[in-house]
Amino acid sequence: MKRRRFLVLAALIAPAGLASQPRPAPQAGPSLSASRSMMAGSVLSVSLLNAPAGARVAIARPGDPATSAIVVVEPRAGQASLPVPGVAGAYELRLAAGRSDAPDILFRQPLATTEPSATLSAPERVGRGASFPARGIGPNGVQDRVVLVSPDAPPEAIGPVFFPIENVEAVLEAPEREGAYELRYVMDAPVSGARVLARRAVIVE
């Protein structure tokens, strides 16, 4: 009986804050934050949370092994930007660490890509060698371009050009040779390669 009274008394005279101090919360594991749905060929922004030094961000197909990825990027200051594959479908965003030939997947997040599309605007007719305004909006990927070429030119053809990721509007200079030309929005992304998403006829006279 005396022992029980002593324990009760000790509890009453203990410092007030000693028993109420909260335990430190366990640190959350590595993860990332990013959109789960993007237009194919666009650029995905990713934020890393509690990632270890040397971590990498990758886009892969869901069934691919850890050593296989379509895109791999090393983040800077907890941020990363990745070119999204240019073919619509189901992919997986991964946070990986360790050796590149035997990486550990620390976090996975599904990524769905929708069919890419683009729009163009420009005058129907321009003078030889004249400057004219052009506008192109699409996935705005890192290597996407709006370019003036012959209608039968391949997707890789070059000509007066601007890059929508820098600015969706620009002033281009028409060729000196008269004829029929085509203003194109060319998406150039992983998996798809160069692909013409939109065309607009331009006559140089």
Short description:
This protein is mainly β and 205 residues long.
Walk me through this protein's architecture.
This protein is mainly β. The chain folds into two domains: 30-114, Macroglobulin (MG2) domain (Immunoglobulin-like, Sandwich), CATH 2.60.40.1930; 119-204, Macroglobulin (MG2) domain (Immunoglobulin-like, Sandwich), CATH 2.60.40. Helices cover 6% and strands 45% of the residues. The chain has one helix at 2-13, and strands at residues 31-33, 37-39, 43-49, 56-60, 71-73, 79-83, 89-97, 104-114, 119-121, 125-126, 131-137, 145-149, 161-162, 169-173, 179-189, 193-204. Strands 2-8-7-4-5 form a five-stranded mixed beta sheet, with no helix packed on it.
Structural class: mainly beta
Determine and state the CATH class of the largest domain: Mainly Beta
Radius of gyration (Å)? 28 Å
Inertia-based shape: elongated
Question: Can you give the mean pLDDT?
Answer: 90
* End-to-end separation: 110 Å
CATH architecture of the largest domain: Sandwich
Helices, by number, come to 1
Order of helices and strands: HEEEEEEEEEEEEEEEE
CATH homologous superfamily annotation of the largest domain: Macroglobulin (MG2) domain
What is the beta-strand fraction? over 45%
Which parts are unreliable, with pLDDT below 50 for 5 consecutive residues or more? 1-18
